[in-house]
């Protein structure tokens, strides 16, 4: 498959495992040079080395916690030449309204909701100055199919859907495409843990 990405540069957040790691692999196969960001240094280095050795692309690793504004700014500066931004990092907790504390809710949103918004703000400005770009927000189906037992995630995802549509409604004037994707459950370590928690809340077991 040739998606016309050879020589393009992409930043993938949450790239150390799961969907983010798979996205990085596909982009490398297509000849796209990579900036890979996550907190897991060892996993990131493994993915980056595989991209370099197998597909002959450049791959830079950024070990970073995107909950912190200064880290978001530093990442945007380090990846200022990208053509594609894929916002993917997130770990919003499962649970109903009484289960998710304010601290946990804010902690989850700092990474996925505000992390997406803040990184997009900085990267968008650079793309606008360069005259082109693509921003893809990997959001999730809970923003469309609201789930009592994933209330923080459903609410956050719905907010990101609105953010994506609002920004994308004007971004083409700057020659920037802003796209949201809402995948359903994908068998990753995080989603298995999340589904077990939801099953336990609903049925009193871990859904084994």
Description:
- There is one protein chain.
- A 6-stranded parallel β-sheet has the order 3-2-1-4-5-6, with helices on both faces.
- Helix 1 packs parallel to helix 2 and helix 3 packs parallel to helix 4.
- The relative contact order is 0.13.
- Helix 5 links the parallel strand 5 and strand 6.
- The protein is α/β, with parallel strands linked by helices.
- The chain starts with 8 loop residues before the first strand and ends in a 5-residue tail after the last helix.
Which regions contain 5 or more consecutive residues with pLDDT less than 50? none
State the helical fraction.
Answer: 40-55%
Order of helices and strands: EHEHEHEHEHEH
Strand order of the largest sheet: 3-2-1-4-5-6
Put simply, the count of helices is 6
Instruction: Tell me the fraction of residues in β-strands, as a range.
Output: 15-25%
Mean pLDDT: 92
> Looking at the structure, what is the overall shape?
globular
Q: Summarize the main sheet.
A: 6 strands, parallel
Specify Rg, calculated over alpha carbons: 17 Å
The secondary-structure class comes to: alpha/beta
DSSP strand tally? 6
Chart the SSEs and their pairings.
Layout: E1 9-13, H1 18-29, E2 33-38, H2 41-55, E3 59-63, H3 69-78, E4 84-87, H4 102-130, E5 133-138, H5 151-171, E6 176-181, H6 189-203
Parallel strand pairs: 1-2, 1-4, 2-3, 4-5, 5-6
Helix pairs in contact: 1-2, 3-4, 4-5
Q: What key phrases describe this protein's structure?
A:
alpha/beta; six-stranded parallel beta sheet; 208 residues; 6 helices
